[in-house]
Amino acid sequence: MTPTDFDFLRKLLKDRSGLVLAGEKQYLAESRLLPVARRHGMTTLAELVERLKLTPGLLTGEVVDAMTTNETFFFRDRIPFEHLTETVMPALIAARAREKRIRIWCTAASTGQEPYSIAMALKGMSAALAGYRVDILATDLSAEVLERAKNGIYSQFEVQRGLPIQLLVKFFSKHGEAWEIAPEIRGMVQFRTLNLLNDFTPLGRFDLVFCRNVLIYFDQATKIQVLNRIAPQMPDDGYLILGAAETVVGLTDAFKPYTEKRGLYIPNAAARNAAREASNVLRFAVKV
């Protein structure tokens, strides 16, 4: 692959998905994109790049899917799910006692292990959640991985990664070499294709947002943009959970760390109010 072709692909990925591909990752692009080229009757990446320039269409989506890392597993990193059951849900159950509705957004669902882990964790809180409606929306850039997530079928290797044996026995049934998640868990999650670079205000507001292990692929400007657009989608008493290698510190004042809970953040109401006041002043000045 020529440097020019590689630069074209890097820009395409950044513009379409936010993915920042480092200069030394050319080998990764070659290994992942050559199969895409061959599926479409091309023998070289130069041909693929030329096709993308002339008629991008669905081919662009395939390229983005091929370059997106969909690494995930059940109850990944464990700590976020402890935050969910021990801190976040008890607080939300108390705060939403009147409306009895809680909305959760999983922003990078991949093949479904994270949203289904959330659902299984909530099943363990059935008594506390009696009478409550809990909506879990799972989104991802890739329609292909979401199709797998909707099917809820996993290999032996996938269910062995992070899934406690008691939950495997309770919520999965074995079919040949595969494991299918129970309809009661699958029915708790709604899946939807969504690019975090696009407008997501139509999704409405969420009490809890899981945005784990996706910001690490963005440059700083895109991280800031995404976090600042998530903040208005949440109430002042909402919660944000990021991945172990991610933080809001140094990026935005819209959120602040939850004391002594690594990876857990809450909206910064003071910063939000200041932003609203500044916006109101600006609108008044424009009218005058």
Overview of this protein structure:
The protein has helices at residues 3-17, 26-39, 45-54, 57-67, 79-95, 113-123, 143-151, 156-160, 165-171, 183-186, 220-230, 269-287, and strands at 101-106, 133-140, 153-155, 172-175, 178-181, 189-193, 208-211, 239-242, 255-257, 264-267. The chain is α/β, with parallel strands linked by helices and 288 residues long. The protein folds into 2 domains: 3-67, Chemotaxis Receptor Methyltransferase Cher, domain 1, CATH 1.10.155; 79-272, 3-Layer(aba) Sandwich (Rossmann fold). Helix 1 (3-17) crosses helix 4 and helix 2 (26-39) packs across helix 4 (57-67). The longest helix has 19 residues, at 269-287. It is globular. The model is unreliable at 281-288 (pLDDT under 50).
Which key terms come to mind for this protein?
about 290 residues, alpha/beta, Rossmann fold, 7-stranded mixed sheet, 12 helices, globular, disordered C terminus
* Total domain count: 2
- Cα-atom Rg, whole angstroms? 21 Å
Global morphology: globular
Provide the residue-averaged pLDDT. Answer: 89
CATH class of the largest domain: Alpha Beta
What portion of residues belong to β-strands? 15-25%
Distance between the termini: 57 Å
Low-confidence regions: 281-288
CATH topology of the largest domain: Rossmann fold
What percent of the residues sit in helical stretches (DSSP H or I)? 40-55%
Biggest sheet: strands side by side, in what order?
A: 6-2-1-7-8-10-9
Number of beta-strand segments: 10
